[in-house]
Amino acid sequence: MRWTEARGREVLDTTTAQTVGTLDMLVIDPDRAAITALVVDDDIIEWSDAGGIGRDAVTISDGNVRRDPQQPREQAAADGTADPVDKLVLTDDGFALGTLVDLEIDAESGTLLALHCAHEGRYQRLEGQRLMGIGSYAVVVTGTEDHRADGADRSDTTDDASTDDASTDDSSTNDAETASADELHDRTKDELYQMARSREVPGRSKMTKAELVDALSS
Amino acid sequence: MTRLLRASTLIGNPVVTLAGESPLEVKDVVFDTTSGTILGFNLRRHGLLGGPVDETLAWNDVHGLGPDAVMVADEKVLTVDGLEATIPDDAPEGNVLGNQVTTESGTNLGEVVEVVVSAGTRAEVVGFEIDPTALPGGDGTHRFVPLPDTLAISGEHIVVPDAATDFIRDDLAGFGSAVDEFRSKLGRGGS
To answer: In chain A, what residues touch B63 (CB-CB under 8 Å)?
Structure first.
């Protein structure tokens, strides 16, 4: 389920059949990549007290489970400073991946499955496990294998930017025979330059990344 | 493949915690003039009118360095005297930028105009961009010279091994593989 679909849903108390508010925000624990609580109007309802996010409503079975925000993370979610949508997505090695457009969640378990990020019209799906933090400036995720020297346990073996099934790990070769523009865009500029060099593309050292992609995909 | 950045592009970049907050941004880069490496950063407030602050960021406290942000674990590493403490007491005045790069056998290669760093969670200075004076076929185009693991450097000169000239490149993109090759060559040669 996408967060942008669930946002604004009614919260229904099933014992009284009354609407008690609307779902405004999720409180997410990055360490577990899981929803820990919901923000309903200005109150906090812990995930364990909710019956999950249903297709049309969020259900709770006891109106008394609403409480004030207690931890900083809950407070940030409640006052809106930790709204992830439209935030810059930054890796922990300082690369901007784009803007966060949506979260993909498991509505029953509360697991954060993925973050959806857009950059110049291209969409990228990042594994939920990669989330490190949601703050007022950015959403921080772990970087790609390229920059990990010591194999942190957050590493995932799939190519996060893959839009096809030909996902590779960091030992991808520099000499793809024929590559689509999409696959090329996933390469670093250095890798594209090496490919251009092996194909003796003229003017390669003056090209921007976009120009290299064009030259290599035509 | 090593991704490289020019150190001056870091100026104005936000300093961002892993929790996604950015209290400050980079005001300038502080170099160690005895080794050519980066000691850290002076910081300022965000925005065009961002005034300087007393907080600094020491290089060792950087979690990850990239083209878009300098990442730190949390705001606690932005201290008032952390950087000061890492500057050697006898460090000469000088800036690395503007230093003359000379080979061991005495050929001047040019003046340093940029310090080049590798991005990522193990960022380090990997070489210099120089404005060449005496390179064969020199046409005024800037060149990139790799920094060897050991180096002689004073407030005015930087001495590089003769082997460095084999790995000079004329563009930043190709320089990454040149740095890797140069280092493995030095490793095997055991300089």
So the answer is: 92
Q: How many CB atoms lie within 10 A of CB B185?
A: 17
Q: Residue A184, SS3? A: helix
Q: What is the DSSP letter of A40?
A: E
**pLDDT tens digits, one per residue of B12-29:** 999 999 999 999 999 989
Contact B68 A146 (CB under 8 A): no
> Looking at the partner chain, which of B1, B4, B66 has a beta carbon nearest the beta carbon of A93?
B66
The residue in chain A having the minimum alpha-carbon distance to the alpha carbon of residue B23 is A137
Tokens standing for residue B28:
């300038």
Residues 6+ apart with CB under 8 A from A146: A170, A188, B1, B3, B120
Of A53-67, A85-99, B1-15, B76-90, least confident by mean pLDDT is B76-90
Is some CB atom of chain B closer than 8 A to the CB atom of A143?
yes
Do A204 and A193 form a contact (C-beta atoms < 8 A)?
yes
On the CB side of A181, CA atoms within 13 Å amount to 9
Determine which of A15-29, A112-126, A133-147 has the lowest per-residue pLDDT on average: A133-147
Say which of A94, A132, A205 has its CB closest to residue B119. A94
Residue among A82, A133, A148 minimizing CB distance to B18: A133
pLDDT tens digits, one per residue of B64-111? 999 999 999 999 999 887 777 776 666 655 677 888 888 888 888 888
**What's the pTM value of the predicted model, to 2 decimals?**
0.73
